[in-house]
């Protein structure tokens, strides 16, 4: 313990001395203080001061702590340095970690291939949005629960569903709720779990994610930020990105043809950036607009946001009525700004006043709904990019009085 403490002091005195830091890191590892050791190793790696012969050991330590980015960085650096011994083992550890991540959606279970429990969040937890829920029900849930009905009429089922819309408006929530409505596990693949700067790794990670989903079937596989994974090839000529798109296409086609019980949902804020090939039949052939939360949804979001706050006379429904086009995140800033005002009053008066409508209304007036920028961009695609048919739902939304008025005033 003493030795660690004096090494710490020495490192603090000469932070640029890699030999000292390495000694500290090794000492911490020896004492079983792995997280602290990793912090020092990470710093050394960033400074490019980690000796190549330690990279595999540090990578293994990172794996033990489920520190995937550090593990990958060690792997990459070891490859660059021409390290051979132990590389295969590190790669396997990285694969396992992705598998665990994907299977458990970020939780940290003890072993790989852990079965994911059926999703418990349902549409009852998603406020308002009746129209979108109805469409999802017809598009996804009904074909899944009554396959014989669709077969009798020779109606094709399957293929993925792409949810798109402005950020913070419930796409992820709806995807999770869809899995819950079907009583299926929700396997969430986030872009940061897949994309890896090292050549070929992203493709392998993506394949691993699909393998995990197949092992969990029947389940819902959710690809968040699809535009990041499937960026349009014509806009992005880099061969790396193209390879990732190709792998994604292969995996989607395999899911479609094997009919192996994996329902694929995806979400994006930028559907116009998604490679056209993704939208062909059997892939994401159903594209669904998730608009900004409607009034009942906003009231529900506000109720959740204010659950733990001392209030007096606050009426979420009334506030919802005056926050058209606000996203979930916008509503969060409204409540935060209102609370800042109350805290200021508390400091000035030495009392603890409750949150009232006055502060909330003032904050609502000061926050500009962030969906306006998105809707403005979307309007350009609807109007000028010859995409009117694909974005018919957006067009309808843009034509509502509320949106027209706000887009005109830009406020
Ligand atoms: N209809 C709703 N009912 C209850 N909460 C909601 C609703 N819509 C959004 N929220 C809340 O707003 C936040 C943002 O929702 P969510 O993460 O699903 O948005 P998103 O569309 O996936 O956003 P992004 O594009 O940024 O990923 C969440 O905290 C969610 O709980
Ligand atoms: Mg999301």
TrEMBL record:
Q: Does the keyword Ligase apply?
A: no
What's one Pfam family the UniProt record gives for this protein? AAA
Q: Where is the AAA+ ATPase domain?
A: 157-294
What keywords does the record list, in alphabetical order? Answer: ATP-binding, Coiled coil, Nucleotide-binding
The superkingdom of the source organism is Bacteria
User: Do the record's keywords include Nucleotide-binding?
Assistant: yes
- MF terms per GO, please? ATP binding; ATP hydrolysis activity
Protein name from the UniProt record: AAA family ATPase
Source organism (scientific name): Amycolatopsis suaedae
